[in-house]
Protein 1
Amino acid sequence: MKRQILITGIILISTGLLVADGNIKGEAVKERNARMKWWSEARFGMFVHWGLYSIPAGQWGERKWTRGGVEWIQQRAGVPAEIYEKELVPKFKPKADFAKEWAQIAKSAGCRYLVFTTKHHEGFALHDSKLTTFDAKDACGRDLYKEIVDATKAEGLKVGAYHSIIDWHHPHAYAGFGLPTVKGAINEGRENSIYIDYLHGQVKEIMSSYGPIDIVWWDYSSKQCQGERWRAKELIAMVRKYQPQIVMNNRLYRSPEAGWPDKHDWLEGFSIGLQYGDFCTPEQKIPANGVQGVFWETCMTMNTSWGYNQHDHKWKSTSQLIQNLIDIVSKGGNYLLNIGPKADGSIPKESIERMEAIGKWMNINGEAIYGTTVSPYGKPKWGRYTKKPTKLYAHIFNWPQTAKLSVPIANLKVSKAYLLADKEQRALPMQHTETDLIISLPTEAPDSIASIVVIEHKKYPVEQGAEGDAVNCAP
Ligand code: GLC
């Protein structure tokens, strides 16, 4: 009997049917995948970094920053919390209806969700917090998170809350444990547990006052803050009590056993291992081969800053952004693309242009992005693949000069190939060789950034392993 239990246990663990301990205690992979379904099909989301830091926008006095996250300006310029607050709060005057503009831009770009910074490291709460006067309600008489949640839901998008664990404003937030802090902040007289109560309290406000919240995006627990520093398990349990279906990232908690990968910086560290939370978060990078066995999401800026920076003109091209999206999806991940609105809530024109161009592309090609997964055919020289059970999508970045596309799927029963941009879906001529399917293309690419050929085929033969290659599934 004992032996049988042991064997069953081994099978369950090795097939990933049980998830050990933590926030998802007792939740089977099947249930978790069901909870994660909308998220893993969505593939594309919009991140929004906006707070008091959007006012200085990369410049404090004479000092200017042209690169990197200027939502860190308080820390970068070493501004004490009282001065930061006194200087910026009176200037914070968001325009009416900014949230609708954000939600509309996200929707028309083809994003399926929006994640907003309810509080960044500066500590300013964008929701109406009863626990502090350092919040939007006290600064400008509005609950800005409510405006954002309502506008986002009105567009039919899922909505998330990014919430910072780091807090440079709260007098009891401990300055230390390896967390970056504002210069000169000392720990003497600080009672960290008071801050932790406050952190829990604000998260409770967010989770219990705005109806369904779909994602919680913690940021971030560092190397020295493993374990229960934030009373992480309790916090997670509380979030799940109010939002049982919520999807959670992995930046709140690292168990001491998880250690920290020596050879990786902290950004990469987020892409490795998933002790708690549902998905991991490679930042500003696309892992070469995706992240095997877990849900993952690459978050990325359009220039080099998360918060608005008037001095950062290093914008990525639309072509880069679209090809990034495809690259990520072809490896089983999601793309969370950031905008940093100006202080009044308006979106920089460079971001609008890019989001609109992505939207134009998604209108035609979204079918090859949403609900697709990794294909078993790797990374071809000419672009990427995504797939659905009976369709293979060839995303062509470099249109072949020969106007012939070779696809190594001799063993698939293909019924038809056509251009996704062709509304009539006219069949492209095909030829089989021993190893490849050769598709004849028109001489001109329908889209200079990425054109898609749809290859319709019979279901993958199971023995090929293609149906089992759920790289984006939970461990
Ligand atoms: C980092 C930065 C932060 C940014 C975040 C986005 O943790 O501290 O400024 O919000 O990454 O992933």
Protein 2
Amino acid sequence: MTKPLEGIKIIDFTHVQAGPACTQLLAWFGANVIKVERPGSGDVTRNQLRDIPDADALYFTMLNSNKKSLTLDTKKAEGKEVLEKLIRESDVLVENFGPGALDRMGFSWERLNELNPKMIVASVKGFSDGHHYDDLKVYENVAQCAGGAASTTGFWDGPPTISAAALGDSNTGMHLAIGILTALLGRDKTGKGQKVAVSMQDSVLNLCRVKLRDQQRLERVGYLEEYPQYPHGEFSDVVPRGGNAGGGGQPGWVLKCKGWETDPNAYIYFTIQGHAWEPICKALGKPEWIDDPAYKTAEARQPHIFEIFKTIEAWLADKTKFEAVDILRKFDIPCAPVLTMKELANDPSLRASGTIVEVPHKKRGSYLTVGSPIKFSDMKPHVTASPLLGEHTDEVLVGLGYSQQEIFNLREIKAV
Ligand code: COA
């Protein structure tokens, strides 16, 4: 099957998570992604959190599938020469080094554009160019704090909280992938490459836009009716942390199910969607609430929403999270069990759809990873193992026209 990005050559000058998540996605969709790594060590995640001695860590294998690995010391003149050849025949270069690292290496945007005016140069940084923090190196949690996620996540009586979802890293990589694909379409029209830059702060903030909505509402009316602080608690002049409250116009909460005393994940998320009020009352055996003025409208329910959640928890007390959802789904109530990583790893539906995939690896045996969350009618992305360090160095160099003797010489001086 021909994949849409076949024929697109990408220099993957990325490391850790944000950049690799982007290029992995493009590799799944058919791009020829060549990961350029420092000889001897490579991407730092090859060694981080190892579970098998001498085998690449899952941190690396789960973010670098379907790629090739070329080792190259791009600080040596010979390494730069190889990189320049690669640049001349590539469509995209993706990087997420610390601020200024690419310039210090001698590959500024101007130089790259001179070497290959058709190439798209895509960068992830912590903060956007010109921002007063644009000199900072940034990791995931720093971005979650800088992008507004931390101040609005968690409970009001606890500290700002980090999400387990990689809002700073993988999310920024997904934004960058959209930018690259857009620039490739643009190049079809103009024949020119361009620089695509995404900051982690901006990407987190983009996902927190409803909180900026709430800040403006708060400033206008002084309260936020869907937050647990309403109507009994106090609001300050900034959007508070709302615990597990539903983010939009649908009140919701995480509710205890049978076994919660011993199982920390025996919970469901329950949403009281306005038009589902009647089925909710029927499911709970509370038909009298349907027309009761104290319950009938969302506005009437809000002041005693936690009393309603308590009633639902009483109903849930003798049902597991799975039993509860199986009943509630019949009433068209938006809800889900709180699923653990173990449950997700073994979920037959996720296995069947290719969202959880088992990948054979030369050194590790097979490992589980998250496959493409994007499904196509004409293409099923196939996940292959991440490359060993330098696995494709010879192949790439031969493709660039180097002879075996020249490759040997580059090895002797540790440039590859
Ligand atoms: N050959 C020779 N040198 C290489 C090389 C290669 N193949 N690949 C990288 N290097 C060098 C770089 O040129 C740089 O050298 P310099 O600082 O002397 O100029 C150095 O390796 C490391 O760069 P840096 O990216 O700053 O690494 P770090 O480990 O200090 O910082 C981050 C890591 C993630 C904090 C930083 O890269 C960063 O802020 N990136 C942007 C934001 C980001 O993507 N963060 C999320 C990561 S998930």
Protein 3
Amino acid sequence: MVVMTRAFQIPQQRQLKTELPGPRSIALQQRRVASVSRGAGTLANIYMERGDGAILVDVDGNQLIDLGSGIGVNTIGHAHPDVAAAAAEQASRLTHTLFTVTPYENYVRVAEKLAELTPGDFEKHSILVNSGAEAVENAVKIARKYTGRRAIAALDHAFHGRTNLTMTMTYRPWPERAGMGPFPGEIYSVPTSYPYRDGLSGAEAAARTIDYITTHIGATELAALFVEPVQGDGGVVIPAPGYFEALREFCTENGIVFVADEIQTGMARTGAWYAMEHVGIVPDLVTTAKGIAGGFPLAAVTGRAEIMDAVQPGGIGGTFGGNPVSTAAALAVLDIIERENLNAEAQRVEATLRARIGNWTERFPIVGEVRGIGAMFGIELVHPGTREQNPEALTAVIRYATSHGVIPLDSGSWDSVLRLMPPVVISDELIDDAASVLEEALASVG
Ligand code: PLZ
């Protein structure tokens, strides 16, 4: 099969012209600290000007390798001309009406595509909103309305957002929650499956989760269970085989809405439209955001029509949700994923990464585990000879990498997991170059 990958305008090469951050970045950083809240912390103070494919170009003309996609957003690569054209064309025609005042076709077309692409062969309906957190909030509202129950469960190490409700569903107190309560009631964190740390099989971990739910919440009290197929911010945690199957069955038996938060894992990231496809699980509701619109704000809740329609007209909505420009961009992105066969590209990235970095546990004493699926990898850093988390090493590795033109991500409840989520169009050569820089970084720390 011929894969129609596009030609890039910017050579797909790392190229440094100044030290990083360069003089223009440093000047911008000075203005930034005088005007932007320090609450918006930054991984690397290198200011970007443009991008193409897996390359970011900073304000000093340096070309950096993007291993983060802005936390899983630029999955199709930066600055795809078709997305730019679709957004520009739409912007020149109509930027807003508010779908719930006077509707437009783009919104309906995105909902049709989501019904087709999300797992499950039943009638599905969607609501479109602006952000991942807003999608999760809406899924909570919808599940409560449908079940008439109030309790919501999320897994340990989860990340579901930063609004008051979703930060409560987000696992760790620091820095996402500390000092910012009060928090809403009826939100429970329940034990998950984290094979590297708990050593449990999927069945054992699921039994532990279910036991916790039945003894702390009550199965008949629980409206919804939220799971991420792979926990991204939580440290690229992939549950043991069989874990989700057992939870899905438990939810079905007890009338609990099973919600897959695919905000980070969806849209080709793991080599499938939705990561739940890998384990053959059909969720009742799915949340989508990040990669769906190439950086334009768009998110969705999609699910069984009878659940989505339990809400009274006017019960869910919002001013900008599913705006004409974001939905035009999304339609272009969905077309590109199909046309450029980007699920297969994510599988290629997985194979290349596995071959290139799979033996890091043997080569670097601070690497405890390398795990991943598709273009989503986590490298858990520990103190040599132990499984004790090593956040200092992660800070040092990221500092080394970013000052050498490679932008990876941090993650993990203990800030000790190096996370790689490049655009899936990244070439094998760029992966190799980036891996060499990360190896230097790991060696310099170890
Ligand atoms: N659910 C699974 O990964 C966002 C957050 C970046 P929003 N994760 C990155 C940051 O520092 O806030 C995320 C996610 C999952 C929900 C969300 C929230 O999505 O679009 O950031 O609100």
Protein 4
Amino acid sequence: MDTILIKGGKSLNGKIDIAGAKNACLALMPLTLLTEDKLTLTNAPKLSDINTFKQLLESLGAEIEFKKSGREIILSTPEIKTVRADYEIVRKMRASNLVLGPLLAREGHAIVSLPGGCAIGARPMDIHIDALEMLGAKIDLRDGYLFATAAKGLKGCAINLPFASVGATENLIMAASMAKGTTIITNAACEPEVGDMIECLISMGAIIEGKGTSKIIIEGVSQLYGAKHAVISDRIEMGTYMLAPIIAGGEVEIIGGNIKLLEAFSEKLISIGVTITNSLDGVIVKGPDDRLQAIDVKTEIYPGFPTDLQAQMMALLTTANGTSILHETIFENRFMHAPELIRMGAKIDISGGKAVVEGVSRLKGAPVMATDLRASVSMILAALAAEGETVVNRVYHLDRGYENVEEKLSNCGAIIERIIT
Ligand code: UD1
């Protein structure tokens, strides 16, 4: 298993390019199941999660080609060969559940393994199931699989989601796009990645209103067509790298991201003394001259502070001046990075959904273990500023969602290398 070795203490100066958004790309790829025509996705990120999803879609009958060294994905599904999404693939990645809606819409049935728990929480699928049942599907759970059928086809209706789940909103939009009649989703997730899916579906011939809002109206159509779509940039990757010069010192230009998608996050940073300025190609983030002030952060659905940046923010706050409180409201168990940061000298107390972080003047390098995707990058950020050497183990978590971390950071002066074993 590869590890990443970081020698902390170097300030960062340079430019970092932001890739296409993993979570948008994972929501766009299953759209191939809704049409026989060719779907081309450009600005795709090169990540192991994308490869896993490719395997899953291929197992269902999709033909998928990576071009332009993985930046372009060409997908077509002339026919669905099986409607069974196997546990062996689904268990690797929760986003695999995004084949449920489109399989039901195209084939009238689907057999999709439940993803199971993951390090950050139980993550059930009740909201997906209830919403698809309102569209006319019948869904039973047997042997760990959801057996879904829509014998008479799916039929549009009004659905108010009990929680604005990103995945449930996406599954529902895909299913409703080819249902009979009109579907009105209220309390829908407003995340930009959902909007990106809607935009692509509209280019494929879907009739959808309300992109970016919590009320989405979908007029079902009988057929969808091919399209070419550029994946939006990764706001979480952008936020992660914005923190790097703040933690390590220096000045980094983040190229190609969209700061407008990170308002709650940027506001927090500005309020504790970080300088963020727009440049021609992105934003420039400058590390503070003095020690940062502690702050309270609460994760929320979009446009609130993203849960996917909570671990990285915790890494930053471990050395702030004073006591910070991080309140995690989206996932019940998303503090797995805290014990690892504590191994580096951080003072963190977890109780319920809250982490109380008492800033220390400096972290110390240590061997640590990545427990999930965002936790892994939080340790890398912490290590950039820590005294001495840090070895991050289990970096396959990192590779799921960040491409070329070592290269991007070392180009800015960090001492970081991957040890391939
Ligand atoms: C997506 C993102 C993930 C991000 C999350 C929240 C992808 C591939 N992943 O995950 O990076 O952290 O949004 O912004 O886009 N829930 C239920 N029942 C359900 C569905 C969800 O209880 O049927 C709960 C989950 O357990 C979790 C919360 O709702 O606690 C948020 O989940 P959801 O918004 O669905 O996240 P994902 O789509 O899984």
